[in-house]
Amino acid sequence: MSRYDRGRSFDPGSRSERKSFGGRGGGSRGGGGGRGGFGGGSFGSSFRGGGGGGFGGGFGGKKDKLNNNPGQFLRKPKWDLDALPPFKKDLYREHANVQNRSMQEIDEYRRRCELTVQGRNVPKPVVAFEEASFPSYVMDTIRKEGFQEPTVIQAQGWPAALSGRDLVGIAQTGSGKTISFILPAIVHINNQPLLQPGDGPVALVLCPTRELAQQVQAVSSQYGRNSKVRSVCIYGGAPKGPQIRELERGVEICIATPGRLIDMLEGRKTNLRRCTFLVLDEADRMLDMGFEPQIRTIIEQIRPDRQTLMWSATWPKEVQGLASDFLRDYVHITVGTLGLTANHKILQIVDVCEETEKDFKLIKLLEEIMGESENKSLIFTETKKRADELTRRMRRDGWPAMCIHGDKSQPERDWVLNEFRKGNAPILVATDVASRGLDISDIKFVINFDFPNCSEDYVHRIGRTARSDRTGTSYTFFTIGNAKQAKDLISVLKEANQHVNPKLLTMAEQARGMFGKSRSRYRDKSAPGGHFNRSSYGDSRSDYRSGGGNRSGHSSFSGGGRGGSGRGGGHMSTANKSFNSNRTQDSHGGRNQSQQNGSWNQMGSQQNNMMGGGYNNYSNSYTQQAPPPPPPGPPPSQPNPPQPLMQQQQQQQQQQQQQQQQQQQQYTQATAAAYPQATYQAYQQQATNAVQGKYSKLQHGLMLNRDDHSPYNVLEILCIFIKADNDGGKDMIILIFNSLAVTICIHC
């Protein structure tokens, strides 16, 4: 999936996936099945056409007649500010205690709280709820909640918002940003004229996800109950009927996701003519999810003299551009630093491990966590499939786990979250759909089973714990496949004064050399004239440019049929880690020759040797040129006179078996001469245990002690692993040569 899991969208993948997934005609806006290719259009029918294709080719993609440009049917209003009815924005009355504070006291408070403000005539912060000059209907609710004092973002944000100023608030997760804009919105609404039939909401809150929208709506209902302020939450994935009826009754606050709101506006179920208070919650997340066109379309429907509040956890260039376009003379408030920061009340533990160790480590960790009195845990995975599989295994083993992700229906997601809040299911497995906006105050542990695509998502994931004034703990399984993110993760840990795992520092140093600025990182310069493609380091995403469709959902390999040029061809399946490349063509068009020698045939498929310097395309592994062929066996016997077909086949099989036995004896003798018998037996036993035990990865470093470095040694080790394979050749065995060392990897 793409760097975020959002249910209603898709993962565009790499450029090669967009261009050559389905063979001929597979452009980024259309389809075409090609000649025997596997897939149709680039993304099917959900991205401006597509479709067609299939195993036997098909029809080219057609222009989709659906609305692929949300908001294209909305007419941009021509605003005349002189003709618009006036409204009140400046509602703040500075408390006497705030007036009497000196600038030295204010500066000391801001320095102690790491509060930075920018802008013209920034109001002084308040340090008590009474100093914010809220009406009694707001203060009564605050007292019932039992809060002692406002958070830092609330202390500075309330005076600015109540003054009618545009505002940008940057603060870490769990800092109370929701109340920072809901209470000023309620005060703003109660100072405007009452709604008339046909009027839309006065305050609009845009959220990136339905979970965050529901959280904001719950807070809005709680604090607006005393003042009779009505609110509605509209989002995709739920029936439109109840949402439309709520809008038609009239609501003062509308909390919405951009897509569903545009649907309502285009259907004329509501309007934004009365909207004078706009909030963009988690603005950075909405831009990352690609909602910028929708946001701009929605803002065009709102009068330009509105009050706009933008809240975010980070301050990237995209958010800065949006603020400069739609905010006027705004106050910029930052709690902490502008860099990527995590909540300092979270204990962050990073475990550098192998991919195969995750399941075992997770079970051991949960055994310790479930022994605690506060054990509510949130486990994050990278994909929806991984979340379902992990939940299924955990429930099978008796763990009280539940799962949510973008493909779950909204009623199911609501029920799961409710069970998690009540504690009936203290373990929740989720994708990034819950990384922001999931405001459950008593989450004690966050476990990153899969590290996210970027450190920004990591910060928001662990921010689900340590809400308000609580503390929490995060555990992260960090593998070599996440090496690219090691540097950013170290920066986050150091900024939060957390212990940095020495293994993580070592991995960051190694990744610096491995993922440098060189554009030719897919070229193996050590192999003479050799090239190889690989997927992203330890990951399943690929950057291949060669053709042919495939079943793995990734980019195309040049395997099967006429692959290699993106012009169709058969498919290559990587689901069972076996390759089907019996008739591939290399980059020069020459047909490959199959080796029929010895142990190569025992892998269950023919091993093809590329002619003319073609590419060896494997996924999830490094590959180089194949080892030299084994020495020829005894010369083949002279052909016998013609015999019946059955006898000829039996005789050929016997000859092949004899030839293989002779070659294996030669290999065994060569290896016995190079290594002591104990070493040979040890490697044979390790290989047998590796395959029978179903370990996902086993690496051995084997130094060749002979001066001539005979290839028999390498092939003998290969024979050992093949001999130990009890699964009919389904295991993929890759040899990687590095000077005198031989690294053997088994993917089960």
TrEMBL record:
Q: What organism is listed for this UniProt entry?
A: Desmophyllum pertusum
Give the motif span (Q motif): 127-155
Keywords associated with the record = ATP-binding, Helicase, Hydrolase, Nucleotide-binding
Pfam families with a match to the protein in the record: DEAD (PF00270), Helicase_C (PF00271)
Show the ranges annotated as biased composition (Gly residues).
Answer: 22-60, 558-571
- This protein is called what? RNA helicase
Question: What taxonomic classification does the UniProt entry list for its organism?
Answer: Eukaryota, Metazoa, Cnidaria, Anthozoa, Hexacorallia
CDD domains referenced in this protein's UniProt entry, alphabetically: SF2_C_DEAD
The annotated regions of Low complexity compositional bias extend over: 592-625, 645-661
Ranges for domain Helicase C-terminal: 361-508
Q: Name the InterPro entries on file.
A: DEAD/DEAH_box_helicase_dom (IPR011545), Helicase_ATP-bd (IPR014001), Helicase_C-like (IPR001650), P-loop_NTPase (IPR027417), RNA-helicase_DEAD-box_CS (IPR000629), RNA_helicase_DEAD_Q_motif (IPR014014)
Q: Where is the Helicase ATP-binding domain?
A: 158-333
Question: Might you give the EC number(s) for this enzyme?
Answer: 3.6.4.13
**Family to which the UniProt record says this protein belongs:** Belongs to the DEAD box helicase family.
- Where are stretches of biased composition, namely Polar residues? 573-584
Domain DEAD-box RNA helicase Q: where? 127-155
Q: Which reaction does it catalyse?
A: ATP + H2O = ADP + phosphate + H(+)
Hydrolase keyword on record: yes
Which portions of the chain have biased composition (kind: Basic and acidic residues)? 1-20
Where does the record place Pro residues bias? 626-644
Outline the segment boundaries, as ranges, of region: Disordered: 1-77, 514-661
- Molecular function in Gene Ontology: ATP binding; hydrolase activity; nucleic acid binding; RNA helicase activity
